[in-house]
Amino acid sequence: MKDWRRIAGIGLLAMALLLVPGIARAASALPEPTDVFYVNDFANVIDAETEALIVQNGSALASLNGAQVVLVTIDFVGDRSLSDYAADLFNKWGVGDADKNNGLLLVMSIGDDDYWAVQGRGLESTLTSGMIDSILYDYLEPDFAAR
Prior knowledge:
The protein is α/β, with parallel strands linked by helices. The protein is built from 4 helices and 4 strands.
């Protein structure tokens, strides 16, 4: 009887050790931004032409008034909510001008079939959450739902 328990215990320990890296990956740290910053296609779903257009427009906007609009695609969020993931990423990356707090981050979680936008407080009066929701629903949702 002791041998069976010992073997079962070793087996459970081995399984637990194998699962720990998977759990750690699911709750992994937030990624660093890419060199182009305005588009971070970690899910590899954006073509080069679209990526170049996003970077060009993002750079022009930042030069104009310091505002930054950043797009991030990921495969899966893991075990945190998409809204928490997006807010944490927004803050870690410092999206927007630090004094004006005028950044906007759009995270698209392709595997989770969901997206979330976070805007800085400096945009809340001119680009409200309701406006962002409407824009995403009208312009993003049809294509996102169709894929």
